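The aim of this short unit is practical: by the end, you should be able to scan a pair of folded records and say something sensible about each. We start with the first protein, listed as its amino acid sequence and then its structure tokens.
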Amino acid sequence: MSTPDPTPVTIGPPPRMVEVTIDGEVRQVAEGSTLLDAARAMGTDIPTLCYGDTLTPKNACRVCMVEVEGARVLAPACSRKVEPGMVVHTDSSRVLLARRMVLEFLASSVDMSAATPEVGKWMVEYGAEPIRHGADAATVAQPAKVDNGLYVRDYSKCILCYKCVDACGEQWQQTFAIAVAGRGFDSRISTEWDTPLPDSACVYCGNCVEVCPTGALSFAEEFRLKEAGEWDPSRQTQTDTICPYCGVGCTLRLHVQDNRIVRVTSPHEQFVTRGNLCIKGRFGFSHVQP
């Protein structure tokens, strides 16, 4: 007997299509799509850092800016919706200069060495040279916060993209254990009253770690291996399985190196979890370690 597909099906009228021109190519795009959606659908790569496919865009990093003809300023592709007749340039000289400046400013003040692998490629592609701002450029260098055995906070790598705040807050976990503290140049991600994580409202779901694009948040085992120079993604395998702790049916993606689980994620396209897990699914694997 076949098992019915549990994926929910939404029945309704097809989306209205609008015509937009991106880099000289005319495309029909579903109304309500963002410029980022439209560009990626046609194979055009637009860099993103603060964008998360399971979160509402915050427009914080500004690295995805594109030029819309007739507009006074550049537009963030991650949140700007398509409009009929819109003409967009993703690689104009104005766009390229803006991306180079953003990457330079970020890398001159924040340690980007553990950021998403594409960052190094973007640095070369856009000719970003953070050293132009001088070796004494203001940085947020500080020791990593290792105050629990599950994950590490290294805010010297934080670009204030706010993805962790959204994942912990109203968009997913509803725990509100972390938020933006301070104002202006003193803005930073913090627990309430900057208390150690074990004394905060954190429930250790690790969903903030899941969405962090720069390595400011990392699994304890991952942090330990990187500090020892032993972290090697080329030696890692990934295996999907179902979490055994309850009946919800969350999909776990086990990242294994040298026969040890070094981190656990969940596929963002999985309709049960959308990348989110609880403390048991994310960290409850020590009993199977060699």
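Turning to the second protein, read its sequence before its tokens, just as you did above.
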Amino acid sequence: MSLVEDLRTALVGTRFSAHIHHFAVVDSTNTQLIAAAVEGAPEGTVYIADEQTAGRGRGGHSWVSDPDAGLYLSVLARPSVRLREALMLSLATGLAAQTAILATACVRVDLRWPNDLMIGSQKVGGILVETSAGSGSDAPLHYAVIGIGINLNQERFPSELYPLATSLRLVTTKTQDRQAMVVALLRALDHELTLLEDDAAAATDGKPLLERFTASSDWVHGRRVQVPEQGGYTGTTAGLDAHGFLLVNADDGTQRTVLSGGVRDVL
């Protein structure tokens, strides 16, 4: 059986089983899936690539996508949530990735708000959520393309990335099974998206998700961080606000809300 056939069989019962597309090489799975979403691709469409030539991360950063070494995947979701709740999708995806990596690699990754998968001080994966919606924060989402990159079997990185990045193979000294990771990840993500939609229907404003993310991340409370936005400042993390944005008690005595990510440890 092909990879696509194997995945469809393994993902029966989830929203991701019917529309899986595998590419040997693609510029960016997110870029291609956004184009498909605009043309009406169905909920649950999955794009997975062996290699990306122009992988993208949050904030316009590039994502190194070596051939056959990592997991490069995007999914199309059409959740019943509002634009103001879009950040919840990134947090939910982080929880799904944490669950999948623990199940398949027996490694606990930390969640660096809002979208980084960390092992110690090194990044092992990242999440990029790109959405389309009407105008206004209460507008329903038209779609969300959720991109996930995980370093599985890289044995080395460019010198400029070596202190900052790692792979599950380097951490565990074991070759990682990409197919098993994809199945675990998409099953966990299907579960998280269902919980998020249930929360929205119950008008809980995402509180259960925020509580679970807070409990699963060492970055949400009591972490000394530096933040590049608002001219740059340092402070101590102080939880999440009602919409999932990170609060920081800045060293100047004010409490600030981090809007664009990029928090890092104070060196």
